[in-house]
Amino acid sequence: MTATYDFELLPVGFVINPMGSYLGCSPDRPVYDRSHNEMGLLEVNCTIKESVSGVAYLRLVGEGFQLQRSHQYYEQYMGQMGLTGFMWCDCVVWCENDSHCERLEYGPAVITRMLAKLDVFFV
């Protein structure tokens, strides 16, 4: 069975945060989720693995997979949400034989920690 979604993908370029012009990101796409009438982000990672079961940054949780919260991709997605103001990001891991899609919710504590480090680095 194939899942269908009612999404509209929108164009994007480099996004500069108005609160700190030295902070920016380039998300893959902003997404309008028509079924929930809300906007979020989409990030797609294409791997050379045959299956998501061989992707090192995904871990098996119950009967499905989950992005490891300690991996740099997790921080990348949290940073993109923090800089763009979107409250969720659908991360897709595409493999030759299957794929994984996971909706990550914005975590303000993560971006607060990241921003403190980035401010020190920039200054």
First-residue to last-residue Cα separation: 52 Å
Query: How would you describe the shape?
Result: globular
- Which regions contain 5 or more consecutive residues with pLDDT less than 50? none
Radius of gyration: 15 Å
Helix-strand pattern, N to C? EEEEEEEHEEH
Number of domains: 1
Number of helices: 2
Structural class: alpha+beta
Based on DSSP secondary structure assignment, what is the total number of beta strands? 9
Mean of residue pLDDT values: 90
How would you briefly describe this protein structure?
The protein is α+β, with helices and mostly antiparallel strands and 123 residues long. It has helices at residues 72-84, 108-122, and strands at residues 7-9, 15-16, 24-25, 29-33, 38-46, 58-61, 64-67, 88-94, 99-105.
Would you write up a description of this structure?
One of its GO terms (biological process) is DNA repair. By secondary structure, the protein is of the alpha+beta class. It has helices spanning 72-84, 108-122; strands at residues 7-9, 15-16, 24-25, 29-33, 38-46, 58-61, 64-67, 88-94, 99-105. The protein has a 5-stranded mixed beta sheet, with helices on one face. A two-stranded antiparallel ribbon has the order 2-3. A two-stranded antiparallel ribbon has the order 6-7. The protein contains 2 helices and 9 strands, in the order βββββββαββα. A hairpin with a 7-residue loop joins strand 2 (15-16) and strand 3. It is globular and about 45 Å long. Helix content is 23%, strand content 35%. The protein has one domain (30-122).
